[in-house]
Amino acid sequence: MSYTKRVLEQTLANNPNEPEFHQALTEILTTLQPFVDANPEYEQAGVLERLVEPERVILFRIPWVDDAGKVQVNKGYRVQFNSAIGPYKGGLRFHPSVSLSIVKFLGFEQIFKNSLTGLPIGGGKGGSNFDPKGKSDREIMAFCQSLMTELSRHIGADTDVPAGDIGVGAREVGYMYGQYKRIRNIFEGVLTGKGLTYGGSLARKEATGYGLVYLMAEMLRRHGKSFEDQTVAISGSGNVAIYATQKVQQLGGKVIALSDSNGYIYDAAGVDLDAVREIKEVNRGRISEYLNYRPNAVYTETRSQEAQTTGSIWTVPCKIALPCATQNELHETDAKTLVNNGCFAVGEGANMPCTLEATEVFLRNKILFAPGKAANAGGVATSALEMSQNSARIAWSFEEVDQKLQDIMVNIYSSIATAAIEAGCEDNFVVGANIAGFKKVATAMMQQGVI
Q: Which residues have CB under 8 Å from 16's CB, separation 6+?
């Protein structure tokens, strides 16, 4: 049995009942196998055994009091996965689905994503099964302060720098930062995605969505295509989806569909982004309210289990698909539907939104497919730029940050394309991203000894 396969089987057995983590492990190690097994120095140094095991896992309770005076308790997680190339860096997710498996999968992916940015940041991730929906600002503050009371002892500007993720925006980051500063009595860049008045970076809010489109635009350009006059379906309607929509529209594409956890809208005339932003960013409403602005649009509810495979947003015919909602939202049936409807490019704006089976459909049909660890790296890249500004006590203009982001995303595409060619798998950007991300981390691990 090969070294890579042996480590994969051992790791799956040692981490039972963690399906999301298993999926990430399988996807990454399977694609790395030919490369790793051809370079025996990795086995001699035990790189894979150390890579798949987090350096530290922190589990804690988060007690807080709701507006009715009742004590609530949630679970808190922080997985500090790998610090070979820099301090741990990765978001905090607040969502009822958050579990150790999900946090470990996200943290493992983050190692490779952060490596691809070319910036000195390691991989980590965290969060809680807390649901911010329907909570008052005071309840959000109480929860965030309680979480940070525990988390503050494990993080720092040169140790671990969390950021936002699903359910964690500027409001939540602000409350957590305030509590960190209060407890530690230090003003430092310990969180990214901060408000502009206290160390945040311009273009950070737009970065993940913009970065996704910048990388896809470069991929399309290298293959004689562009966003110009193409129909685009984007799942989600949060931060990533909104700014991906904005950038696609700026590049001449027509976004015709957006979604949330309840359903999706289809607007043949092209999505009215101002309406979506008012619904989501101002009113914190549901995408179904879009029909109040554009009555000629069509709304389809997709909450049922059956709808996930027969009535999803991916039944909308489009040329380019950008899944920007959550993990495993795009299934094998969806992938086949997209291919049959003439879709030629897919970019993962979310973390692992495509199942392994869906990814295989895209690769088999020669779809230009950009995996999330490359395509959505713009957010964490700009977070690292925020860290740099904080350390130097300076603030760059929006244009400066945006240009740096574009350069990073173009460089990511170049590195994954080159790695794919060198591996004999031209245009297989899954293989390219995993190898390119792995090489830098593995080299650093071996040079630092067995730790």
A: none
Answer whether 320's CB lies under 8 Å from 252's CB: no
At 294, which amino acid appears? Answer: R
Cα separation, 133 vs 396, in Å, equals: 34
CATH T-level fold of 54-188:
Rossmann fold (3.40.50)
User: CA end-to-end span of the chain, whole Å?
Assistant: 26
Q: Where in the chain is the domain with CATH 3.40.50.720?
A: 206-375
Q: How does strand 56-65 pair with strand 122-128?
A: unpaired
Rg (CA), the chain: 21
Give ranges for CATH 3.40.50.10860 in the chain: 54-188
The tens digit of pLDDT for each residue in 160-185 reads 999 999 999 999 999 999 999 999 99
Q: CATH assignment of 206-375?
A: 3.40.50.720
Q: Are 154 and 160 in contact (CB under 8 A)?
A: yes
Give the C-alpha separation, 163 to 97, whole Å. Answer: 18
Closest CA to 298 of 307, 287, 308, 309: 287
Distance of CA 391 to the CA centre of its chain: 24
Is residue 336 annotated as part of the catalytic site, yes or no?
A: no
Percent of the chain with pLDDT over 90: 96
Measured over the CA atoms of residue 277, residue 280, residue 281 and residue 282, the dihedral's sign is positive
Alpha helix segments (H runs only) across 152-306: 170-184, 204-222, 239-250, 273-277
Q: Which of 125, 205, 280, 440 is catalytic?
A: 125
Q: What is the pLDDT of residues 303-318, one digit of tens each?
A: 654 444 446 999 999 9
Strands 231-235 and 320-323: parallel
Tokens, residue 397: 């203009």
Question: Are β-strands 298-301 and 263-266 bridged in parallel, bridged antiparallel, or unpaired?
Answer: antiparallel
Secondary structure element (H or E) that encloses residue 94, with its range: strand 88-94
